[in-house]
Design a protein that fits this description.
Elements (H helix, E strand, L loop, with lengths): L12 E9 L2 E4 L4 E4 L1 E3 L16 H12 L3 E5 L11 E8 L5 E3 H8 L3 E3 L8 H13 L13 E2 L10 E7 L2 E5 L2 E5 L9 E4 L1 H9 L11 E7 L1 E2 L3 E5 L5 E3 L3
Helix pairs in contact: 2-3
Length: about 250
C-alpha cells in the first residue's frame, strides 16, 4: 500500500500566493503545485484557440477560497514532479478549529473536479472516487453540466480526444498476444473498447484482478478517448475501471 509522506528534497509546506486554475497553486517560493489525482475544468492559460471548459472560472474561485494566502502542507504518494516541473502533491490546510482540510477532497465534494489518476500516483484514489460519486449523485458543480456527465457507450463518437467517464456492460473479454480487450458491443471493429497492455494485465493480475472477470459486468471507465477500431480507452491501472453491479 502506498503511503503519503514528505519527500527529501521537495517542500513539505509553504504559503499559497497564487492560484493558476482549479487544480494548481503557486507557493511563495515560486514552485507550482498540481493537486494530484484530480482534474478541474480547464482554462486557456495562454493556449491559442482553447475554449474554457464550463465552470473553469468557478473552479478556480473555489480553490482560491480554500487555499489562497494560507499555509499548506504537501504530501507525496507517488511520482512527485511532472514534466512541467510542477510538484504533484496531496495538499492540506490546518483549520482554526484544529481539523485538517484536504483540498482534493474539498473540491471533489463541491463538484468542482473529477478524479484523474495515474498508474504512478494511486494514493487515496478510493476516497476520491467516493467523494466524486456523492457529488455526482447530488448533481453538484460540474455534474449538473452535460459537458462532464457520464457517457453511455453509444454516445461517445463526438468525444474522441477528450477525457471522459463511460458506462456500459462488457459483452466480451478477449486476449490477443497478451493484450486484453474489453468489448462493449457486438462489433469490435467499431464499438467502444477498453484495452490493457500485457504489462498492465500483469499488474491487474498481481493485485488479484482477473480481467476476464469483467465479462458481463456493468462498469464505469475513465480515461482519454482515442479512435482505434471505434472509440477506445487504454487503461493503465485498476482504479480506472469501477464495477457498478455484482
Amino acid at each position: 500500500m502506498v503511503t503519503c509522506s514528505a519527500v527529501a528534497g521537495e517542500p513539505a509546506r509553504g504559503r499559497v500566493t497564487g492560484v493558476i486554475d482549479g487544480d494548481t497553486v503557486v507557493l511563495e517560493n515560486g514552485r507550482e503545485v498540481r493537486l494530484v489525482g484530480i482534474q478541474a475544468p480547464k482554462l486557456p492559460l495562454g493556449r491559442k484557440n482553447f475554449t474554457p471548459w464550463p465552470l473553469a472560472d468557478a473552479a478556480k474561485q473555489a480553490l482560491e477560497d480554500l487555499a489562497l494566502g494560507r499555509e499548506v502542507t504537501l504530501a507525496y504518494g507517488g511520482r512527485r514532479v511532472d514534466r512541467h516541473d510542477r510538484l504533484l502533491a496531496h495538499v492540506t490546510v490546518a483549520e482554526p478549529d484544529g481539523t485538517t482540510l484536504w483540498l482534493q477532497g474539498a473540491l471533489l465534494e463541491q463538484g468542482m473536479a473529477r478524479v484523474y489518476s495515474f498508474a504512478d500516483n494511486r494514493w487515496r484514489i478510493a476516497e476520491m472516487l467516493a467523494l466524486e460519486r456523492a457529488a455526482r449523485a447530488a448533481e453538484r458543480g460540474i455534474w449538473d453540466d452535460r459537458f462532464y456527465q457520464v457517457r453511455d457507450v453509444d454516445q461517445i463518437e463526438r468525444d474522441i480526444g477528450s477525457f471522459q467517464l463511460v458506462e456500459g456492460r462488457v459483452l466480451a473479454v478477449a486476449e490477443v498476444r497478451g493484450r486484453v480487450y474489453l468489448n462493449f458491443g457486438p462489433d469490435w471493429r467499431s464499438d467502444f473498447t477498453v484495452t490493457l497492455k500485457p504489462a498492465v494485465r500483469r499488474k491487474f493480475e498481481a493485485e488479484g484482478i482477473a480481467p476476464k472477470a469483467y465479462q458481463d459486468r456493468w462498469v464505469r471507465v475513465r480515461g482519454w478517448l482515442k479512435s482505434f477500431n471505434g472509440p477506445m480507452i487504454e487503461v493503465t491501472h485498476p482504479e480506472q475501471i469501477e464495477v457498478l453491479e455484482p
